[in-house]
Amino acid sequence: MRKTVLVTGANGLLGNAIFRLTKGQGRLGIIATGRGERRPSVPEAIPYTSCNLEDEQSVKTMLEDVKPDVIIHGAAMTQVDACEQTPDVCMRANVDATRYLLKHAPAHTRMVFVSTDFVFDGTKGMYRETDAPNPISVYGESKLLAEKEVINSGRSYAILRTMLVYGYAPELSRTNIVLWVVDSLKNGKNIRVVDDQFRGPTLVDNLANACLLASDSHNNSVYHISSSDYISMYDFARKIADVWNLDDTLISPIKSSELGQPAARPPKTGFVIDRAMEELNFRPISIDEGLRQMYKRLTNNH
Ligand SMILES: NC(=O)c1ccc[n+]([C@@H]2O[C@H](COP(=O)([O-])OP(=O)(O)OC[C@H]3O[C@@H](n4cnc5c(N)ncnc54)[C@H](OP(=O)(O)O)[C@@H]3O)[C@@H](O)[C@H]2O)c1
Hints:
Blueprint: E1 3-8, H1 13-22, E2 28-34, E3 48-50, H2 56-66, E4 70-73, H3 80-85, H4 87-104, E5 110-116, H5 138-152, E6 157-162, E7 165-166, H6 177-186, E8 191-194, E9 198-199, E10 202-203, H7 204-216, E11 221-225, E12 231-232, H8 233-243, E13 251-254, H9 256-259, H10 274-279, H11 287-299
Parallel strand pairs: 1-2, 1-4, 2-3, 4-5, 5-6, 6-11, 7-10, 8-13
Antiparallel strand pairs: 9-12
Helix pairs in contact: 1-7, 2-4, 4-5, 8-11
């Protein structure tokens, strides 16, 4: 049976990767929703409906119209510092919007909710799904509250926690580490990158694939999704320079405390991804392979 899959956050990085990955797959009826008008990241072939997810009535009307079998809910306020500075706005975008989707979707609709490593405090590293969350930022707190809404909704769900997602899509509202490093080094700009934060960077295509695998599954569970490697942000930036053959002497290390960012970042995250590999058949893409794939995509005119 053809499934109707509603993708929220359609104008974002993940939305675009899902559309690329499902191109030509007739078994899925993909419907995109984003805030405001369709942007170039949403192909014309995909039906698009504009909806501000913070407006409950708009969410209700949209869901009555679309009647999705699955919602891949990637929309979120993702700017960590902005969340810290305007917590009310962050809670509305990340928690209230999720609650409205859960409340007004048809009873059978499966929720695939995209969450974050920022639900952890980052003291331990290499987190399993069974480790206790302890967010240290408003953004992390908001995503954890949204996770609880999903779990307590009583409907079919998968929560995919991911981290440091990178990739390319046209006209993004915000950049990501790979685009920032490449752009800066190409322009001969010196950059400082923290060497005391460790992550498992995730190619957005790999995350998009995990979302589709979770859509097809019937398990109600939390899954950790990232590359299987673990690296400091500084070393990751140097790897990016290496793949793009750019001058890595422009990159210097800095400590998180020297940056003075409004929101605290967990020092060491990194995921154990065994559950996703065993239950969803998720296959992680290594950091080297992910960067090579992105390089190819960018140099082949996207
Ligand atoms: N990127 C990462 O490193 C990372 C790491 C861990 C987890 N995640 C999670 O992964 C998911 C996807 O991330 P991403 O990188 O694709 O984020 P993104 O590029 O920032 O896209 C998020 C999208 O959500 C939309 N949005 C925000 N508030 C909305 C609202 N009230 N109504 C409708 N749409 C709204 C934004 O719209 P506008 O374009 O209009 O702003 C944006 O297009 C998010 O849930 C994020 O929390 C991301």
